Amino acid sequence: MKIAFVGAGMIGAGLAVNAALKGHQVSLYDVAPPETVQGTVRGILDSLTEAGAVDAPAASAALAGMSFTQDLAQAVTGARLVQECVPERLELKQATYRSIQELVGAEPVIASSTSGMFPSALAEGALYPERILVGHPYNPSYLLPLVEVCGPRASQDSIDTAMEVYRAMGKEPVLCRKEVHGFLVNKLSWAVMDGAIQAVADGVCSVEDIDKAIMFGPGLRMAVTGQLLTMSLGVPGGFRMMGKKYGNEEEDSGKTAVIQRIADGVDEEIACRPAEFGNTVEGVSKFRDRAFVEILKLHHKI
Ligand SMILES: NC(=O)c1ccc[n+]([C@@H]2O[C@H](COP(=O)([O-])OP(=O)(O)OC[C@H]3O[C@@H](n4cnc5c(N)ncnc54)[C@H](O)[C@@H]3O)[C@@H](O)[C@H]2O)c1
Asked: So which residues are the signal peptide here (predicted)?
């Protein structure tokens, strides 16, 4: 499958490397000279090789499968998905979509890497707005699998195609059904950031202790079992028993409906996990412990 990357800086080049490593036909378009983009890509492949994620022959094969161009038509023709990774300026992004859709019509889905713009704003004035959505990656994009897909006004086919292409690139797409600031996870990151700034400002702790506290506590858990599954594992019986265990049943009563939804969702999440990652509470706990040991070895804590 052909996947095009328009704007090949930090984010675009990283995602393009993912796609090339999975054997897809990859084109990178940038206003910068192709040699500059090639240099960025080589740097990413070197980092991945050094970190042990790929070996040298795989890195060379990925590079050989990529084409670098300053010709937009050449880059996007035949692409199933065009990942737009140009700088965070609305007019520039909209003008880029117009140029692409004038060249290749409604054929490719166009996904924007934007961290903060709503898909409806990006698609305003487009020739085929239903083909435009957000596909928000996380830095470093060549390693973090997360891509948040958001396009409440995009067609179902556009959403399905984006999810399918990201999976085929080895990414882990999640669907953000509504246009909310920060999509799914930046909102959570901002909450943690606010708390960290406040703690330092109030002299509660040192900068280092805030980072240590997260790295060796909740951050470690979240890295392995997210937020809701983590909390559920902490109480026998999961979310349904949380109010009972912590003695705030009355306080919880207003939240009963959402707690029920979370409890059902966690049950489903556990049941749908591949067996090797644990698909029972006991199995997930064992997987979690193994994962902790691996991470803690890297920190020389074990
Ligand atoms: N850096 C991050 O941590 C991060 C994380 C998630 C999402 N994003 C989003 O990804 C997008 C790209 O960010 P980045 O960090 O890769 O920026 P960057 O500056 O590293 O790369 C932008 C690239 O776009 C190129 N460019 C500029 N004008 C262009 C044009 N008209 N046509 C084609 N290419 C053009 C530049 O030459 C450059 O190579 C932004 O929307 C940003 O908000 C960034």
From this structure: none
